[in-house]
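[stage:ingest] chain + small molecule (dephospho coenzyme A)
[stage:ingest] validated
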Amino acid sequence: MKIIGLTGGIGSGKTTVAKMFEELGVPIYNSDLEAKKLMHTSKTIRKKLVDLFGETAYQEGKLNRAYIAQSVFNDPKLLKRLNKIVHPVVRKHFVKWSETQNAPYVIQETALLFENNAQGLYDKVILVTAPTEVRIKRLLERDNATREEILARMNNQLEDSKKLPLADYVIENIDLEKTSAKVDEIHSRILDFS
Ligand SMILES: CC(C)(COP(=O)(O)OP(=O)(O)OC[C@H]1O[C@@H](n2cnc3c(N)ncnc32)[C@H](O)[C@@H]1O)[C@@H](O)C(=O)NCCC(=O)NCCS
Ligand SMILES: Nc1ncnc2c1ncn2[C@@H]1O[C@H](COP(=O)(O)OP(=O)(O)OP(=O)(O)O)[C@@H](O)[C@H]1O
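[stage:predict] done
[stage:export] tokens:
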């Protein structure tokens, strides 16, 4: 079974593209979602997060996402420490999950792939792109976030110009029909290569 990475900056449309692959029968691992589940369920992560952020890291037993986001996205050192706690656990969880899947290939959707220099862990990497202003507009519409909050996250991610040369397949996600056609094409190419 092949392991494919699907990445792209915030608001590029990773989840939208992942859903298109899912409709083609491809098992998808959504790292953002699974990371948050693990931050909720793993006692080890909980303890480390409370050590790092204090008791406010959890509120009524639930991960205090707003507080953690506000703390880390303007503090690269703190973000690095958070990443160091969460990413290895997510990686292990993904590997275990992939071993239970029965398909020609699976996709790990993750915002931080080239940032973590993780391209070597995948057979192929798909990069989703869209112009920065388009991404900001989408996020302003989707989330209850300010432009500054969005830019703070973007500033902790690599620019597309750095990621483009590292990707095997690129999907410029502007027109959804074109994106869907590109997904079909990449799906065939992944099934074909050995
Ligand atoms: C700070 C947290 C609690 C905020 O949660 P929230 O629900 O607001 O955002 P969510 O996790 O859904 O992420 C949305 C987007 O933000 C960006 N983002 C998230 N984490 C990071 C990060 N560590 N570095 C840069 N960008 C990030 C990505 O583009 C991601 O797709 C959460 O993002 C987090 O715990 N991040 C650190 C762990 C991590 O890297 N998770 C993502 C993949 S493993
Ligand atoms: N081609 C498109 N045309 C119009 N809207 C789109 C397009 N692609 C995605 N969107 C919308 O833009 C928003 C962001 O898309 P999506 O959630 O797929 O991005 P993402 O890269 O997964 O974001 P994040 O990094 O925050 O997880 C969503 O509301 C989605 O419906």
